[in-house]
Every structure is written in structure tokens, then in C-alpha cells.
Specification:
The complex is a heterodimer of chains A (about 290) and B (about 425). Chain A has about 290 residues and is mostly helical. Chain A contains eleven helices and two strands. Chain A has a two-stranded antiparallel sheet. Chain B has helices at about 15-30, 60-80, 100-110, 125-135, 165-180, 190-205, 225-235, 250-255, 275-280, 300-310, 320-340, 345-355, 400-405; strands spanning about 45-55, 90-95, 115-120, 140-145, 150-155, 155-160, 180-185, 210-215, 235-240, 265, 285-290, 355-360, 365-370, 375-385, 390-400, 415-420. In chain B, the strands form three sheets. In chain B, strands 7, 8, 9, 10, 11, 12, 13, 14 and 15 form a nine-stranded mixed beta sheet that branches. A five-stranded parallel beta sheet of chain B has the order 2-1-3-4-6, with helices on both faces. In chain B, strands 5-16 form a two-stranded antiparallel ribbon. In chain B, β1 (about 45-55), α2 and β2 (about 90-95) form a beta-alpha-beta unit. The longest helix of chain B has 20 residues, at about 60-80. Classes of the chains: A mainly alpha (about 290), B alpha/beta (about 425). At the A-B interface, α1, α4, β2, α9 and α10 of A face α1, α2, β8, α7 and α8 of B.
Chain lengths: ~290, ~425
């Protein structure tokens, strides 16, 4: 294989892995740190895309629009936690039903505000040529951002006071409460942080996907797959599972068809969960 | 089977139970409010007519304009005297891009509302959900959307353009103008699968070849491997048989990878969902073929657009070919019912089969009796980068030749199948 073809394939593979990281990191934070299964994750992502669209149309620079959109979704997450999730901690089925209902409401609210049709943003940045191949520079940006988001999660949970408290509250809730960690506060912040990451995912995908009220559905399945295969470790789990599933998907898609790529991804996930039911990071016992 | 769901989410037995409970709840809610059957075809009151389209969900990029066309067509027919001197009363359902809802609503429209005619369906999958219900309940059915052709059913009339009109014009044009090597990217369901076969056939007839075919699920919006495949096989043109809001991502990823410099795109579906409006200048140069373009210059079209914009505002997005197929469907049925002076299904079918014609916005359309498809004009157009198309050429009164060849419902009324190449 030629050098240029190899580089092209490598970028394509890394892009697939990065997109998996981007769409699942927010879900992983909420699931890994709080044990909450947020079925509205896809809709948070969709909100991020629509907020970006609004910001951009209101005249914001596209990058600024993305950041504002992510923070906006974080705010929505904060409200959702206060108004809904906080009453349901520890009740897995109730949280799932509530967030599922929330996802339906969010889709319809967006339909009412933005209308039902597909919208879009032009992909920023240009094209890069490598030998015979050309690739979108935006894909390279996605790869860099995926790494940056993992770094951000690492820094937030290991280098900030909130992060230490959040991890303490996850690992030994009673002891954390005994030494004065306000679980209510940390939970609220963790959920909002997860929502911000979901919003960032939507913002980042807005220029490469169709922005439509139902777009969350296109990503949420794979995000859940990545998080479940990854297990409770927010960073180790998400990174390793995205790398594994993304590689399988990308290699099989390129060698055969994208249909078989998706099938292979699901197959690997099923086989893996058969032998590692708690996910890749399940045995390590570490929380990040 | 819903089509807008992603790959399955993990389920615990508990979650499955919850899901079951939830869906039962939803089902009962949907079934409530039934009863009160009323015959639609007697008395002097309004005539109930039914429509089922996807007004929400990823397929609404087609369904929205089709639903607007439905309302306007009913209004237009009512304003010009109605049918049999009576007003039409539209009962419309939003199937939410969910095939299961088509079956449910088709049953409701036929049995509860007792509609005189049922129109609707966006994807071919949705048509195949409605067709058996319409058949069983003896409700006349119109499918008004571009599709893969070959449906031969006494109870079903099709006003959409078919491959023997559309691809028969588009593929030779692509081979001649862009080159012989074609790469097909198709939506992974009956429309894409069957149309891909058609592309192959017309490419070979025109002296070209299909170098590769890739099928993409409707819920996927990632085309990384397709973009790579295109760079490896270097075709002269991509034939896009992509469908729905998620697939718009392909054109965007194609443009951002800079592939537009080395290959062209030709598509029988591009534009039906106003994709050129979403993509704007990234749509420049994409070649399409349809019976109707908003840019067509004729008095009938000017009048139609004036009415449309008076109803829906001047800033309405592009009026699509699908919308006009719906418009034509309603007017053809109204003409046939008026000419037959009856709403009786068999009588209206006989009248439609006698070759009803209608001067639509895209030119005169004539129902071809034996095949239940339209003889209509086909124009080739090119995305102009300004949310519209430039019409390059028009061929008049193109027959649905494949359907005519395989389907004769006048001499064999019991045929009920879909012919494929």
C-alpha cells in the first residue's frame, strides 16, 4: 500500500475513533461518576447542534458558537438535574423512564422552535491533500478535540477540588458525606458537566451531519455501546472502548461495506460483554 | 420496525419490562378515540379523503412539502367546485418517519374515517406498509413520490417518476458528460437496492460501468469509508441514491474532503428533500432529473407557484418534485371522480385507466391505464449553488416504459406484485 493511502486510512480510522470518544464522553461521565443512565443523551447532543446553528446565524464566529452551545446545553443539564434527576437518584428504572420521556419532550420542543426540517452548517476549514488523496481538515480537528476532551475530563476530575469531591462521592459516598462533601452539589455539577460534553459533541458534529430534531437517535446507540463496553472507568473505559470499536468499525467498513462495519462493531461488543460483563475497565476498579 | 432508531441500546431484563409497559401504554393511547364510523361516500356532506405522510422525523425533509401540497391541492379542488359538487374534507396523519404508524393510520383512515381515497407514503417501505391495508379495506390508494418503479396493483396509482423515466435519462447523461466509471452510494432499503440494479442496467446500456456499490443505513450519517472508497476507485461520477435527513451529511463530507474537483455527483433523489437549500453552494453542479423544477417556465407553473406562495409565504423553501407529484395525484383523482360522477372505487379506477390527463405545474401528465403510472415530462437540471437548479433540457411525454412492458392491469386486473429489473 502506498504511503498516501496509508495516511488517508489512518486519518479515517482516527476520525471514527474520535467521533466515538466525542459522542460518548458525556454519557460516560454521567454513567461512570453517578451511575445514572441518561437516555436523553442523544437529545442533549442534538441541542448542542441546534444551539450552534442559532449562534452562528446570530452572527457569532463558528468556534465561539460551538463553545456557547456546549455551555448552553450544560445549563440545560443543570436545570434538568434540579427539576428531574435529583429526585430519582438510586432508582435506575425510574431515571431511565424519566430521561426517556425527557428525550421525547426535547425533540418535540425543538420541532416547535426550529421546525421539523433538516438544517446544516457548512464544514469549516478546508481540504488537505496527501499524495493522491484529499481529506477534510475538519477531521483532523475532530481528532485533536477528542484528545483535548479526554484531557479536560482528566484535569477536571484529578486537578480540581470539585473533581476530587466528585470521585470521593462516587467511591465512598458515606465517608465522603462524613467528611463534609456536599453530594447534592457534586451530583448537580457532574450532571451539568456531562451535559456540557454532550452539547460539545453536538456542536462539533453540526458541520458534518444533518442538523435535525431526530439526529440524537443516529448517535445515541453507538454512544451507549461505547460506554457499556468501556465500563465504569470514565477515561480508561471510554478511550479503550472507542479505540477498539472504532478500529473494528473503520477497518471492516473500509475493507468491505459500512453495513458490515456496523455489524462487526456490534458483534465485537456482544462477544466482549459476554466475557467482560462489567466492561473493559470493569476489573481495574479505578474510577477514571 | 422503526427506521429512525440507531443500533440497539443495551437492555437489562428490567429495562425490557419497562419498555414493554411503556409501549403498551402508548399503544392504548393511540387506539383510543376510535369508533363512530361514518361512510364517506353517501349524503351531501363533505367527502372525507385521507393522507398519511412523514411530517416529523428524518423523512420530513420530503414529507413537509408533500403535506403542504396536499392541503393546498384540497383547497384548490374545493375552490373550483369540489368533487361531485361536494367539498373535500382532509383527514391527515403524521406517520413520524415510522413505518409501523403507516399501517396503524392506514387502518384508521380506511375503517374509522372511511375515506373515499387514501394518498400518502414517502419511502417505498411506507408504501408497502399502506398497500396491503388499502387492498384489504378496498380503499383506493395513490402513492405520489419518486420511487424504484414496478408496482403493479389494481388498487394503487403512482404519480411519482420511475427509473424507466428518471434514471433512463440521468445515467446516460452522466456517462456521456462525466465519463463511464460510476460509483453508486445507495440507501439501504428497497428503494436503494432496486434502484442500484437499475443504475447498473442503464450504465451498461449507455456504455458505462458501475465500479462499486455501497449501501448506507438510513440512520447513518457517517460516510468516512465511502469517501475513502471514492478516493481509491476514482470514479468519474457518483450516483447518489441516498435518502433522508441523515444522508445529507454525505454531500457535506464529499465537499469538505475536496472530492468535487475530481468527480461529479448525479442523483435521482437529490433535491426532493430540498438538500440544495441546506447545502447551498456545496450543491453547485450536482446533476438531477425530475418531471418538475421550480424554475420551469410555463403559465401553469407560474400560477401554481403564485398560489403556493400566497398560501405559505414568499420565503417558502424550494417547492419539490415530490410536492408536485402529490398535487398531481389529488387533481387526477378529482378529475376522474368528477368525470365518472361517482366515488365508487371500481368506477373511479375505470375512469383513471381510461387515461385521465391533467395540466400540472410540470406540464401535462397522463395516467397510463394498463400500468397505473404517469406519462410525464422529464427535465435534467444542475444545482446552481443558490438553493435551486438550472434546467438544462426537457424531454416531453416520457412513458413509464418498464411498467408498460411488464404490467397490464386492464387485461390482467388480478396482478399484484412489484416487478424488478
Amino acid at each position: 500500500m502506498q504511503m498516501d493511502a496509508l495516511i488517508n486510512l489512518a486519518v479515517s480510522l482516527l476520525t471514527t475513533v474520535s467521533i466515538l470518544v466525542i459522542i460518548s464522553i458525556g454519557l460516560a461521565v454521567v454513567f461512570g461518576m453517578m451511575g445514572v443512565i441518561n437516555l436523553a443523551h442523544g437529545e442533549f447532543l442534538m441541542l448542542g447542534a441546534f444551539f450552534t446553528l442559532s449562534g452562528y446565524r446570530a452572527g457569532l464566529n463558528i468556534w465561539l458558537a460551538m463553545i456557547v452551545a456546549a455551555l448552553g446545553v450544560g445549563l440545560v443539564g443543570l436545570l434538568v438535574e434540579r427539576l428531574l434527576i435529583q429526585f430519582l437518584y438510586g432508582r435506575l428504572a425510574a431515571t431511565m423512564l424519566a430521561t426517556w420521556g425527557l428525550s421525547l419532550i426535547l425533540v418535540q420542543v425543538v420541532v416547535l422552535i426550529y421546525g421539523p426540517s433538516t438544517q446544516g452548517l457548512r464544514t469549516p476549514l478546508g481540504t488537505m491533500r496527501v499524495g493522491d488523496y484529499s481529506m477534510s481538515q475538519y477531521n483532523l480537528l475532530l481528532i485533536a478535540v477528542a484528545v483535548a476532551l479526554l484531557g479536560l475530563v482528566f484535569v477536571v476530575f484529578t486537578r480540581t477540588k470539585y473533581g476530587t469531591k466528585a470521585r470521593a462521592a462516587t467511591q465512598l459516598p458515606h465517608m465522603a458525606a462524613a467528611v463534609g462533601v456536599n453530594a447534592k452539589m457534586t451530583n448537580m455539577l457532574t450532571f451539568a458537566f456531562g451535559a456540557t460534553l454532550a452539547g460539545a459533541a453536538g456542536a462539533l458534529l453540526a458541520p458534518v451531519a444533518g442538523v435535525l430534531p431526530g439526529m440524537g437517535q443516529a448517535y445515541v446507540g453507538r454512544a451507549f455501546m461505547t460506554v457499556v463496553v468501556g465500563g465504569p472507568g470514565v477515561l480508561t473505559g471510554t478511550a479503550s472502548s472507542a479505540a477498539l470499536l472504532g478500529t473494528v468499525d473503520s477497518v471492516v467498513s473500509n475493507a468491505f461495506t459500512s453495513f458490515l462495519g456496523t455489524a462487526a462493531l456490534l458483534l465485537v461488543a456482544i462477544v466482549l460483554l459476554r466475557f467482560l460483563p462489567t466492561g473493559i475497565s470493569g476489573r481495574s476498579g479505578r474510577q477514571l | 420496525m422503526t427506521i429512525n432508531k440507531g443500533p440497539s441500546t443495551p437492555r437489562s431484563p428490567r429495562q425490557v419490562q419497562m419498555g414493554l409497559a411503556a409501549s403498551m401504554l402508548l399503544l392504548t393511547a393511540a387506539c383510543g378515540g376510535g369508533g363512530g364510523a361514518q361512510a364517506g361516500d353517501d349524503g351531501d356532506g363533505p367527502i372525507k379523503v385521507g393522507s398519511i405522510l412523514d411530517e416529523t422525523g428524518p423523512l420530513n425533509i420530503y414529507g413537509t412539502a408533500m403535506a403542504d401540497a396536499t392541503k393546498l391541492a384540497i383547497k384548490d379542488i374545493n375552490e373550483s367546485g369540489g368533487v361531485l359538487g361536494r367539498e373535500l374534507e382532509l383527514v391527515s396523519y403524521d406517520a413520524q418517519s415510522d413505518n409501523a404508524k403507516y399501517t396503524q393510520y392506514a387502518n384508521q383512515a380506511a375503517q374509522r374515517d372511511q375515506v373515499a381515497v387514501l394518498m400518502g407514503g414517502v419511502t417505498s417501505a411506507s408504501r408497502e406498509a399502506v398497500r396491503p391495508v388499502a387492498e384489504r379495506t378496498e380503499t383506493l390508494y395513490f402513492y405520489n413520490e419518486q420511487y424504484e418503479g414496478g408496482v403493479c396493483d389494481k388498487n394503487t396509482f403512482n404519480t411519482g417518476v420511475v427509473p424507466s423515466q428518471q434514471l433512463a435519462a440521468l445515467i446516460p447523461y452522466a456517462v456521456e458528460n462525466f465519463g463511464p466509471k460510476l460509483y453508486v452510494v445507495a440507501a439501504d432499503y428497497n428503494y436503494g437496492q432496486i434502484s442500484a440494479e437499475w443504475v447498473k442496467r442503464y450504465a451498461e446500456e449507455a456504455g458505462g460501468e458501475v465500479v462499486d456499490t455501497e449501501f448506507i443505513p438510513l440512520e447513518s450519517s457517517e460516510f468516512g469509508s465511502v469517501i475513502n472508497g471514492l478516493q481509491t476507485s476514482k470514479p468519474d461520477a457518483v450516483i447518489s441514491l441516498l435518502v433522508g435527513g441523515n444522508h445529507i451529511a454525505f454531500y457535506r463530507q464529499f465537499a469538505s474532503a475536496g472530492l468535487g474537483e475530481s468527480m461529479e455527483i448525479a442523483s435521482p433523489t437529490f433535491g426532493l428533500g430540498n438538500e440544495q437549500g441546506v447545502l447551498s453552494n456545496e450543491a453547485e453542479g450536482i446533476t438531477v432529473a425530475f418531471p418538475y423544477f421550480q424554475e420551469l417556465e410555463s403559465d401553469a407553473n407560474a400560477e401554481f407557484l403564485e398560489m403556493w406562495h400566497a398560501e405559505y409565504g414568499d420565503d417558502y423553501p424550494y417547492v419539490t418534485d415530490s410536492a408536485v407529484a402529490v398535487w398531481n395525484g389529488w387533481h387526477l383523482w378529482a378529475e376522474a371522480a368528477n368525470a365518472a360522477d361517482s366515488l365508487e372505487r371500481e368506477v373511479v379506477i375505470d375512469e383513471l385507466e381510461s387515461g385521465v390527463t391533467y395540466d400540472g405545474p410540470g406540464g401535462t401528465v397522463t395516467m397510463d391505464g394498463p400500468s397505473h403510472h404517469l406519462v410525464q415530462n422529464i427535465a435534467i437540471g444542475e444545482g446552481n449553488g443558490e438553493n435551486g437548479f438550472e434546467v438544462l433540457s426537457t424531454e416531453e411525454s416520457v412513458p413509464p416504459s418498464f411498467e408498460q412492458e411488464v404490467c397490464d392491469l386492464v387485461s390482467e386486473p388480478d396482478t399484484n406484485q412489484q416487478f424488478t429489473p
